[in-house]
Design a protein that fits this description.
By secondary structure, this protein is an all-beta fold. It has a domain of 90 residues. 0% of the residues lie in helices and 47% in strands. It contains no helices and 15 strands. Strands 3, 4, 5, 6, 7, 8, 9, 10, 11, 12, 13, 14 and 15 form a 13-stranded parallel beta sheet that branches. A hairpin with a 2-residue loop joins strand 1 and strand 2. It is elongated.
């Protein structure tokens, strides 16, 4: 589309397509985390499960489970089901279970779910009703001191 002629050579031209006749046994490449997240808009209601290697931002309503890399549930977002990801930021409503390495509940969060995580941040003003458990054991065991 934008070609510049420089001494008879063109730059910016599309490279020749690779030979696709050979079948590769290599697995498909994982979606890089620096790409834009998939967005579920405010007016969108989904009944079913979402599964992706990429990132997801939910501003609408999901009646089902979501599995993704980084998951953000916006202030107007609601999930009724299981949320499973690496990093989960909840600004909206979640009812069900949350399983992640890192879980953050913003001040606008309304969470009625059981959490399983390694890192947990609950902002002042967030509503949380459920149980939380660490995925891994504590780095140093807590022992009671013996009194003399």
């Amino acid at each position: 589309m934008f070609n510049k002629t420089n001494g008879g050579k063109t730059s910016g031209a599309a490279p020749a397509p690779a030979d696709t006749s050979k079948k590769s046994s290599a697995p498909a490449a994982r979606v890089p985390s620096n790409t834009a997240p998939s967005l579920l808009g405010r007016d969108l209601v989904i009944t079913g499960d979402i599964k992706t290697d990429g990132d997801v931002q939910i501003d609408g309503r999901l009646d089902g489970n979501v599995t993704a890399g980084n998951i953000t549930i916006g202030e107007q977002g609601a999930v009724n089901g299981k949320v499973k990801g690496t990093n989960v930021l909840i600004r909206g409503k979640v009812t069900g279970k949350v399983d992640a390495v890192s879980v953050e509940l913003a001040e606008t969060a309304n969470v009625q779910a059981d959490l399983t995580q390694d890192q947990l941040v609950i902002a002042n003003g967030a509503f949380f009703d459920g149980k939380c458990a660490r995925k891994t054991s504590a780095p140093t065991p807590i022992t009671a001191k013996k009194s003399a």
